[in-house]
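User: Hello, can you help with two protein structures?

Assistant: Certainly.
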Amino acid sequence: MKIGVSSYSFAQYMNETKANYFQICDLAKEMGFDAIEFIDLSLDVQPAPSLAALASDIRDYCAKLKLPIAAYTVGADFLNHENEVERIKGQVDLAAILGAPVMRHDAFWSMPEGMCWRQAVKTVAPMIREVTEYAAAKGVRTCTENHGFILQDAERVETLIHTVNHPNYGWLVDMGNFLCADDNPLRAVPIAAPYAFHAHVKDFIFKSFAEDNPGDGWIHTRNGNYIRGTVAGHGVVPVRKCLSILKENGYQGVVSYEFEGPEQNLPALKNALKFIRKAAE
């Protein structure tokens, strides 16, 4: 199993040093990651004549490093933003320029008063289908992650995938994110694994709602518990078993590490890679 890393995992380091995309590619290669994925390319991070030119530059730089680009991940909200289909088609164009085989986008982040999640899924499904049909023509598969609290537990994302009902559309399985909806990864990953187009390793520290609020840096889960991102292997996510479930269901793609803890950034990534390599054996 190839182990990648998301550009998002370098956020702390990039904020502190103003490192650009080329520099984090160098770091990912030096650390020994097999691939990299990028999240929402920005000209503020690395100037270029256009986002398309930046994507082309990154593709060429990664090719020179022999560092494959595993995926491109972007934010989206088809329920609340006008012209979102056309905007996300533009992101598909960037994914194609990058040479990313997979692009992840969100479905929606909030619902109008009185709307339930099933109604919201039915509303956005035709838009997501239009995007994935466009992406298929460019050789890019699209997927949605269990992410964003509303569509975070396994049955809800599975319902979305069935409603879109297109072979080019699947799931970015984030084994840690299920905890945001108080969904047990060992229950959720077996549901998600057959639909996996891409996968993330993420780990969290967990505190019960019965304990005092631990303060800043913690996520309040749907049912009132508390979680905080941490180095892979330091938290409660059963990473080894989740990877095993993915493999048992035929997943052969890259597994990307997403780090969002407060620990020192680069040592955290190095330690996580060692842990994930061993867990993936």
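That covers the first. Now for the second protein you mentioned:
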Amino acid sequence: MKYRRAQFRDVESIHRIVNHYAEQGLMLARSRNAIYETLRDFVLAEQDGEVVGVGALHLVWDELAEIRAMAIAPEYVGQGVGMAIVEQLAKDARELGVKTLFTLTYQQGFFAKAGFHEVSKERLSQKVWKDCINCSKFPNCDEIAMIRPLE
């Protein structure tokens, strides 16, 4: 398994994997435009030239970053691909000086295994919510807020 930064040639693969789960209501959908605009945020898992997992680190505010758009191709779930991506994103975050990671998720079990714990959404900075205005679930967000201190 190879882990690397996303490139323009990966947009369709990212779109396919993320929206596979979004169609099932397991995560939020991402448009191609949103992927292009945040392409530098993505880390990918690649097996034999095929993208099999994705995750993004989005810088939000002072020493705060979000792990978002985590999705693993169904045939690779349970093989440690997601955990490896989270750890790569956490490493990148530490190098940038991030002190706290957070995620908004429906997959609490996965993120708990990755060292996150559930918190009240009110505990997160107001800056976290700037992207929510474009979400189809706004203002009735049903995702779970979780954080992982990096210090």
